[in-house]
Design a protein that fits this description.
CATH superfamily of the largest domain: Rieske [2Fe-2S] iron-sulphur domain
Number of strands: 9
Strand order of the largest sheet: 1-9-8
Number of helices: 4
CATH topology of the largest domain: Rieske Iron-sulfur Protein
Radius of gyration: 32 Å
Strand content: 15-25%
Shape: elongated
Length: 184
C-alpha cells in the first residue's frame, strides 16, 4: 500500500479537472448567451427590406414624350424625369454661369442632353415645385416654380430667382440602355 497515492491528492487532481471543466463550460455558455443577446441588437441596425427596395428604381423612358415630365418616387422623394425639347436644351446651355447663384453647367447636370433627372424637392424649405404637370406654372425660366416662396428653376433645374440657395439635386443614375435608366 505504500505505492498508492494518499486519498487527499487523488481528490485534489479529480477536483481540479472537474473545476476546469465547469469553468470552461460556464464560460462557453456565457459567450453563447452574450451572442444571443447582442446579435438581434446588431441585426436591427441593418436596413429593412422596404428601404433596400427603394435604394434604386428603374424608369422606362420610352413612354415619355418630348417636352413631358414624369415624377417617380425614389427613397420616398419625388424625382423629375424630363424629356427636354431642343429649345429647352438650348436655353439651358445658353445660360451664363455668371448669372447663376449656384453655377453649374448644363452638361454636368444632364450628360445626355435630352434627359434631365433631378430630385423634385425645393432646396429652400423642401416643398415640391410645380412644373411637371401639363398646365402647371413653370416660372420665368421654363423649368419649375415653387409657389411657397417664389423660387424659379430653369430647364436644367438650376435656381435662377428666389430664396432657394441651391439647384435641384441630381441623383446618381445610369442609363442601362437607350430607354431604361436606373436611379440610385
Amino acid at each position: 500500500m505504500a505505492d498508492a497515492a494518499p486519498p487527499s491528492e487523488s481528490l485534489s487532481e479529480d477536483g481540479g479537472k472537474r473545476r476546469d471543466f465547469l469553468v470552461l463550460a460556464a464560460g462557453a455558455m456565457g459567450g453563447m448567451a452574450t451572442v444571443a443577446v447582442v446579435w438581434p441588437l446588431i441585426e436591427t441596425m441593418n436596413p429593412s427590406a422596404d428601404v433596400l427596395a427603394l435604394a434604386s428604381t428603374e424608369v422606362d423612358l420610352s413612354a415619355i414624350e418630348e417636352g413631358q415630365t414624369i415624377v417617380v418616387k425614389w427613397r420616398g422623394r419625388p424625382v423629375f424625369v424630363r424629356h427636354r425639347t431642343a429649345d429647352e436644351i438650348a436655353a439651358a446651355q445658353a445660360a451664363s454661369l455668371d448669372e447663376l447663384s449656384d453655377p453649374q453647367p448644363d452638361s454636368e447636370r444632364a450628360p445626355q442632353a435630352q434627359w434631365l433627372i433631378v430630385e423634385g424637392v425645393c432646396t429652400h424649405l423642401g416643398c415640391v415645385p410645380l412644373g411637371s404637370k401639363l398646365g402647371d406654372p413653370r416660372g420665368e425660366f421654363g423649368g419649375w416654380f415653387c409657389p411657397c416662396h417664389g423660387s424659379h428653376y430653369d430647364t436644367s433645374g438650376r435656381i435662377r430667382k428666389g430664396p432657394a440657395p441651391a439647384n435641384l439635386p441630381v441623383p446618381t443614375y445610369e442609363f442601362l440602355d437607350d430607354t431604361l435608366v436606373r436611379i440610385g
